[in-house]
Amino acid sequence: MPINQPSNQIKLTNVSIVRLKKGGKRFEIACYKNKVQEWRNGVETNIDDVLQISNVFMNVSKGEVAKHGELKKAFGTTEISEIVSEILKKGEVQVGEKEREHDQSALRKEIATLVAEKCVDPATQRPYPVGMIEKAMSEAGYSLKPNKNAKSQVSDCIKILQSDSTLPIQRARMRVRVTMPIADGKRLRDEILEGSEKVEEDEMGQNEWEVIMLIDPGQFRVINELLQKESKGKGRIETMTFAATA
Questions:
Q1: How many helices (H) and strands (E) does the chain have?
Q2: Where in the numbering of this chain does the Ribosome maturation protein SDO1/SBDS C-terminal domain appear (predicted)?
Q3: What is the dihedral of CA 185, 186, 188, 194, to 10 degrees?
Q4: How far is CA 197 from CA 123, 173, 200, in A?
Q5: Which of 1, 100, 160, 163 is the most exposed place for a label (fewest CB within 10 A)?
């Protein structure tokens, strides 16, 4: 015998629940995954494309809709659009345990991959496998920040690995070429070379000075700003590679 579902029962799939506690009650709305953050960032402006169903619940999973009296008491209004906007703005996005574990695992892997791209073994100047970085992160007790993207956590992760893990690690050195007119080269040479860790080539030609050197990636911006300020657009710095060997 087929099972007949009530015609008024709506099956919500791919749902993301946003919850707000107010006036001693818990109110929930059912949204599409990923749309909540897009709405908060201003990428999505149509609230109908965020909501799976334009209603306010006491409990989405049980289909328990909030009564008008409860909404009026908590929000001072029964206007659904106003209440939904407030919940979207101030509420917490609820994430299931399995989804949370999956997201954290993916974030950890992404951070480890970025660290592996930017760092090397100081003894060999060669990169570590991502799995070894992940193991060192666990050893150092590195705590993920779920609300931040992987890229913004890389610098902190590297510092913690250097201080709290047994894995010898340093940032890979960037190989750059700096060129500028001879007059600027004579004037700025010492200041430019101050930011280098190793000079590979240093040639003062008839019309142009060129130097190829290894620098800490953080020095790239410093040198570039110096060139923009002092060389009036005639000097340039370009990345050749991240050094894989000493």
A1: 8, 11
A2: 174-241
A3: 100
A4: 16, 8, 10
A5: 1
